[in-house]
Amino acid sequence: MPVPLSAFTIALEVVSASVPSPDALLLQALLAAAVRLSGLPAPPVDAPAPVLVELPAAELRRQACPERPRTCMHLIAWHDAAAGRVLLSDQLDWRMRPVDRSFVLHELVHVLQARRPGSPRDDDCARALDDERLAYRVQNAWLDEQGRTERFGGRLHVLRCAAAQVDAEGRMLLRRAGDGDAEALIGDLMRRRGLSPPETSPPPPGTAP
């Protein structure tokens, strides 16, 4: 079933610059792919458009992890659900490089997840972990369609929600299968949102996409 493009009008904030038409068309295509590959419902036609905001890497980490910025040292993209926007590191060349573009697609899956009926509470660890796995499956499926061999998020299968939720700082906790070490969910997942996780080796900047 075709997805109405009117639902995919996405604003792009880049130092108050207006949105070039090619960017809008690219984002429409990525959100349509997110719907197709995830099986999630398309946003209603009258839904507010998500906003992409490109930021210096340090500012992205500050906004995403104000309490523990070092936890997000490799963060390059983040869905700010509270503000209804997607923050992107200026280290990403998402317009030209398919691998970088796949991280925008990943975050658009989170946009769709946040907008679905009955979206989970912020403290629902199991649902949050399932959502992250789905976003990586969509990202990897899209990369496969583009003929790319990079894969991301492969280590999520060893993570489980810790029995005790939530910790003293209000963070959901994870543990690795086979051990009892608990970690903050947001930190562990964000560390895997970088361009160079252990399970992949994307081409270095400046090489052909």
Quick summary of this structure?
With 209 residues, the chain is α/β, with parallel strands linked by helices. Helices cover 34% and strands 13% of the residues. It contains 5 helices and 7 strands; from the N terminus they run βαβαββααβββα.
Describe the structure.
The chain has 209 residues and is of the alpha/beta class. Helices cover 34% and strands 13% of the residues. It has five helices and seven strands; from the N terminus they run E-H-E-H-E-E-H-H-E-E-E-H. It has helices spanning 21-38, 57-64, 98-115, 125-145, 185-191; strands at 11-13, 51-55, 77-80, 85-89, 159-161, 173-176, 182-184. A four-stranded mixed β-sheet has the order 1-2-4-3. A three-stranded antiparallel β-sheet has the order 5-6-7. Helix 1 links the parallel strand 1 and strand 2. Helix 1 (21-38) crosses helix 3 (98-115).
